[in-house]
Amino acid sequence: MSGERLSNAELDDLLETLEGWEKVEGREAIQKTFVFADFVDAFGWMSKVALTAEKMDHHPEWYNVYKTVEVVLTTHDADGVTGKDAELAKAMDRMAQR
Ligand code: H2B
Fold it and tell me: How high is the ipTM of this complex?
């Protein structure tokens, strides 16, 4: 997967294909808030995502309170959103389905 920053048009196309992801105001990043049934579900999902993220060597910025996880994805090395963020966003969505 490419480490190149997506153009604005590519980012808009990506966001049309993703459910619930949006641009972060004032930053080259995308965000989504996941709400689970309870803390165990939220943390279980975070654990699965963490293993995938580590394999990808691509790590989320995230904030968890009880059953809610706020996620921000960006590629620090590229200073923007890349295909790696797209890949991780899709993996997160897949893993949140049950
Ligand atoms: N995660 C994210 N989100 N962006 C990066 O640029 C990044 C990363 N770089 N995880 C990786 C680790 C890099 O620092 C290591 C050295 O490969």
Answer: 0.96
Bridge partners, residue 34, by sequence? 69
Structural domain boundaries enclosing 71: 8-96
Ligand 1 binding pocket includes 55 (Cβ within 6 Å): no
Q: How far is the CA of 35 from the centre of ligand 1 (A)?
A: 26
Per-residue pLDDT tens over the stretch 12-61: 999 999 999 999 999 999 999 999 999 999 999 999 999 999 999 999 99
The CATH number of the domain where 23 resides is what?
3.30.1360.20
Phi then psi dihedrals of residue 67, to 5 deg = -105, 10
For residues 58 and 73, give the distance between their C-alpha atoms in angstroms, rounded to a whole number. Answer: 9
Tally of domains in the chain: 1
Q: Is 54 in the pocket of ligand 1 (CB under 6 A)?
A: no
Q: State if residue 75 touches ligand 1 by the CB under 6 angstroms criterion.
A: yes
